Amino acid sequence: MGRHSCCYKQKLRKGLWSPEEDEKLLTHITNHGHGCWSSVPKLAGLQRCGKSCRLRWINYLRPDLKRGAFSPEEENLIVELHAALGNRWSQIASRLPGRTDNEIKNLWNSSIKKKLKQRGIDPNTHKPISELESFSDKDKPTTSNNKISGNDHKSPSSSSATNQDFFIERPSEFSDYFGFQKLNFNSNLGLSVTTDTSLCSMIPPQFSSGNMVGSVFQTPVCVKPSISLPPDNNSSSPVSGGDHVKLAAPNWEFQTNNNTSNFFDNGGFSWSIPNSSTSSAQVKPNHNLEEIK
DNA sequence: AAGCTGGCCAACCGCGAACGG
DNA sequence: CCCGTTCGCGGTTGGCCAGCT
């Protein structure tokens, strides 16, 4: 089992492929397709096993392969997908056009893994290596601390406040960790999402509570909306495509969910606009990981 | 200049799943 | 259903190369 029967045959070459071999394989597959891999070496005139030919084609000769270094966007996507899919490299690769599972696996093992460790994140679990016990309850913001009124930051009487764009933005320290820079959603009423606890121990003090920076509310909470999408989110209205929340009401509030014991519980938190009669939420992640799963 | 070390990456290995007679 | 073969995947290895001592 396992090893192909052809591999036991003698005179089969192993190791690096020569340009001549590549040419033979490329010509054969271009003209005839690969068909049954075990017959490819014979038909192409190669002293290789079919398995080796298949690997060479998939990882190197395929015309749709993208060459060159991975972009930060690709790396972020890999981290995101790995968090959702684990070491299912072929599934991850299928979401990165032109990249092979082998290539992604190598990148993960040689580079990304290291970067995550340097940030104190366990690459297997995507959680802090020190885990959350270092983040004692007394250090966590209380519910009242988390309640942030828009009026504290913007004048409610200001006409700009009525339809001001707000969005949650992660601290820049994490900008190359997650695939989304900002939470994408379109809701003029409110939404519920789940907080990501994996970065709690990494939160810089200046982000221990929300800050308004210009019109941007910065929060240490790294939201993973894709994980917490409601199952019936298909019924949501179309997303406007922006990184912003349009606030239709003059007053707004950011507070923890009453059902959660504190800000960083997995239970979640919510945006809400007081006196709003509607509770529906519309969330649009960059990548619907639930769907992928 | 030579030897050492670590990173990168192509390719191999082993296994389970799928297929087909 | 069984069994041999093939496919596809993930883990691992080993060679090459650049940087360092």
From TrEMBL:
<dbReference type="Pfam" id="PF00249">
    <property type="entry name" value="Myb_DNA-binding"/>
</dbReference>
<keyword id="KW-0804">Transcription</keyword>
<feature type="domain" description="Myb-like">
    <location>
        <begin position="9"/>
        <end position="61"/>
    </location>
</feature>
<feature type="compositionally biased region" description="Basic and acidic residues">
    <location>
        <begin position="124"/>
        <end position="141"/>
    </location>
</feature>
<keyword id="KW-0677">Repeat</keyword>
<dbReference type="InterPro" id="IPR051953">
    <property type="entry name" value="Plant_SW-associated_TFs"/>
</dbReference>
<dbReference type="GO" id="GO:0000976">
    <property type="term" value="F:transcription cis-regulatory region binding"/>
</dbReference>
<dbReference type="InterPro" id="IPR001005">
    <property type="entry name" value="SANT/Myb"/>
</dbReference>
<feature type="domain" description="Myb-like">
    <location>
        <begin position="62"/>
        <end position="112"/>
    </location>
</feature>
<keyword id="KW-0805">Transcription regulation</keyword>
<keyword id="KW-0539">Nucleus</keyword>
<feature type="domain" description="HTH myb-type">
    <location>
        <begin position="62"/>
        <end position="116"/>
    </location>
</feature>
<feature type="region of interest" description="Disordered">
    <location>
        <begin position="117"/>
        <end position="163"/>
    </location>
</feature>
<keyword id="KW-0371">Homeobox</keyword>
<protein>
    <submittedName>
        <fullName>Homeobox-like domain superfamily</fullName>
    </submittedName>
</protein>
<feature type="domain" description="HTH myb-type">
    <location>
        <begin position="9"/>
        <end position="61"/>
    </location>
</feature>
<dbReference type="GO" id="GO:0005634">
    <property type="term" value="C:nucleus"/>
</dbReference>
<dbReference type="InterPro" id="IPR017930">
    <property type="entry name" value="Myb_dom"/>
</dbReference>
<keyword id="KW-0238">DNA-binding</keyword>
